[in-house]
Amino acid sequence: MTLESQPKVDLERYFERIGLRGSAGATLATLEDIHALHPEKIPFENLSPFLGEAVKLDAASLQDKLVGSGRGGWCFEHNLLLSYVLLEMGFQVRRLAARVRWNVAADVITARSHMLMLVTLEGADYIADVGFGGLTLTAPLRLEAGVEQSTPLEAHRLVAAHGGYLLEAKLGGEWQPLYTFELHEQQLADYEVSNWYLCNHPQSQFVTGIIAARTASDRRFALRNTRFAIHHANGETERRFLTRVDEYRRTLEETFRIALPDHPQLDAKIAKMIEANPPV
Q1: Angle at 131 between CA 216 and CA 86, to 5 degrees
Q2: Once rounded to an integer, what is the mean pLDDT over residues 71-89?
């Protein structure tokens, strides 16, 4: 998709939302700034499919929800929005798809249900991804296999695998797989299929529970149903269970900075989810 044919986005509003200051040229330094700020200011969350609402992927809906309404979203929303922003700024962007390997058994083949981007800049290729939930990247990665790359939080590396790449994160001193991907360009229609499936399949984790994540300069905040964790950059982790609706709402609003939707069933569905996920 060329810059001329892509939907227009309001860069000023987006920069204000993520707190970007200074120069906004199509440079590696700017890409690094945006990549660090975006997952801190715009949370990962799946409240729309949890509440039975459609997740719209057109540019106007993405801007309204993630930029104008104080909400977050999941990978397609985050990375499509960022792709529009980067294209508008003059970056060269190719949209890709990945098979999730995080918490997946080695013999299980998953669908291409995750979105990421390839950004070509100053003669080099970089992977950009601000939508992988609790382990989303906080910096772009050079498309270079076998090299440990630091980010503001964990180290990552890309491993050559089956004609593509495996992305790994270094957690507790060990490399853990996140997802595999190839460099075939994807179209909006490709994402629409996975987006609809994850919104509507009755066993989708995004329909049956709540997942939320946000980064800070020295930690990650992660919520999966009733399990809340703060993962510090020094390796320490705080964990606890959320057992009351008021506590749950407060955590979503204050820690994850989500402007909660005014949905009549939100509290009831949170209560039912808490009941189904007791502390263990």
Answers
A1: 95
A2: 97
pTM equals 0.96
Q: At what angle do helices 28-41 and 75-89 cross, to 10 degrees?
A: 150
| Neighbouring residues of 76: CB distance < 8 A, sequence distance ≥ 6 | 55, 57, 115, 131, 191, 194, 195
Please report the pLDDT score of residue 217 as a whole number: 95
Determine the 3-state secondary structure of 231 from DSSP: strand
Coil vs helix vs strand at 48? helix
- Enumerate the active-site residues: 75, 114, 129
Tokens of 95: 């949209």
Asked if pLDDT for residue 22 goes beyond 90, the answer is: no
Cβ atoms of residues 59 and 8 within 8 Å = yes
3-state secondary structure of 76: helix
Q: Which residues contact 247 (CB under 8 A, 6 or more apart)?
A: none
CA separation, residue 116 to residues 95, 100, 185, 223, 275 (Å) = 6, 11, 10, 22, 35
What's the pLDDT tens digit per position in 170-221? 999 999 999 999 999 999 999 999 999 999 999 999 999 999 999 999 999 9
Cβ neighbour number for residue 82 with a 10 Å cutoff:
29
C-alpha triplet 223, 224, 230: angle, nearest 5°: 30
| 228 C-beta neighbours (distance < 10 Å), count | 20
Which amino acid makes up residue 143?
Answer: L
Structure tokens at 133: 């939930």
